[in-house]
Amino acid sequence: MKAVQITQFGGPEAMKYRDLPDPTPGRGEALVQVQAAGVNFADVYARAGISEYWIVDPEARTIEVFVLQDGAYTLLVKAGPGEKAHSQLLNGFEVAVDEVFAG
Q1: Where are the beta strands (DSSP E) in 1-103?
Q2: Which positions ≥6 away from 45 have C-beta within 8 Å?
Q3: For the stretch 4-16, what's the b/e string if a residue is b when 16 or more beta carbons lie within 10 angstroms of its beta carbon?
Q4: What is the domain partition of the chain in residue ranges?
């Protein structure tokens, strides 16, 4: 199969187009043929070495904070009304969700 792998931080040169062995599904798994794929913003952030990013969702009135760990983003906190979102990168930095959506 064809794949684009990001194995280091950097610009577009960090993305490597490779031939990999076709995956073999295990018991209870399915093999899905992908006709088209893309690179999303989290992949671009990881490639650039951005260690933390926040998503503010005005419709859901939530703030999600993601941190880069072992080359992938994991959810650090999902804060809603009455809660605070905090940073792992900036020690002591926190934001009250209600204040973000006030007014």
Answers
A1: 2-6, 15-19, 52-57, 62-69, 72-79, 84-86, 94-96
A2: 53, 68, 73
A3: eeeeeeeeeeebe
A4: 1-50, 51-103
Residue 84 has which token pair?
A: 């605070």
Beta bridge partners of 15: 6
Q: How many whole angstroms separate alpha carbon 52 and alpha carbon 48?
A: 11
Instruction: Give residue 17's identity as a one-letter amino acid code.
Output: Y
3-state secondary structure of 83: coil
* Chain centre to alpha carbon of residue 48: 12
pTM: 0.66
User: Residue 8: which of 73, 66, 71 has the closest Cα?
Assistant: 71
- Per residue in 51-62, pLDDT (tens digit) is 999 999 999 999
